[in-house]
Design brief:
Helices cover 23% and strands 25% of the residues. With 257 residues, the chain is of the alpha+beta class. It has a domain of 150 residues: Gamma Fibrinogen, Chain A, domain 1 (Alpha-Beta Complex), CATH 3.90.215.10. A hairpin with an 8-residue loop joins strand 7 and strand 8. The longest helix has 29 residues.
Length: 257
Amino acid sequence: MKRTRSPTCELKPSVQNSILDIQRQVRSLKNAVDEILRLLRKPQNGKNCADLYKRGIRQSGVYQIDPDGKGSFNVFCDMTTSGGGWTVFQRRLDGSVNFYRGWQDYKHGFGHLKGEFWLGLDKIHRLTTAAQNKLRIDMEDTSGNKKYAEYDFFAVTSEQQKYQLSLGTYAGTAGDSFTLHKGMAFSTKDSDNDTYGKNCAVQFKGAWWYAKCHLSNLNGVYHHGSHKSYADGINWHTWKGYHYSLKSTSMKIRPRK
């Protein structure tokens, strides 16, 4: 009885080498495909919180973004308020963070993204330069009453122009206590850029786009309700006047549709 030879045994060495080469190439391609799939599954930085919302993220929290390709940074995203996708740049909650600070702190940011914080004027400038944004400000008093103010455009210039404020048309329930500050440069206790004879930031213990001086002072002292001192609290004049400091505030932006 004749023994049958395996087909591969009858192949010439050159053909066997070709098959081995093909097998190696297939393994290499498989590894490349696996790497591409791994990268596709890996979360990529969004340009802003609205970008992340469009990708299906619905949980409010801290995320990494890169608005302009110049480097990523962490932000707090509000994914529930008024359609979600808001990039929060200011939040007051409990008075745990001191907001009476100088220029460098307001330039770079301070606080804790899961609590009270100021994101930083440089980052706000990057966000508002990379896309046209609207602004929403949510406020709450010590009794749990809530109001909001929206502006259909919001931007700040660079540090060279002292982070000058551009602002659109108001809508909301809190009254308009921000339009007065349109066109103003940002001021801190060590950088007086207002149009008043004295330093508004020093007089009212905050940092803001002061004019002569303010109708709103959301970076003021955390008095938590009524206070005897004049206009140095977290004031929104058209809602609570100058002797009432709000319990909480949140300033946030989202690209205009």
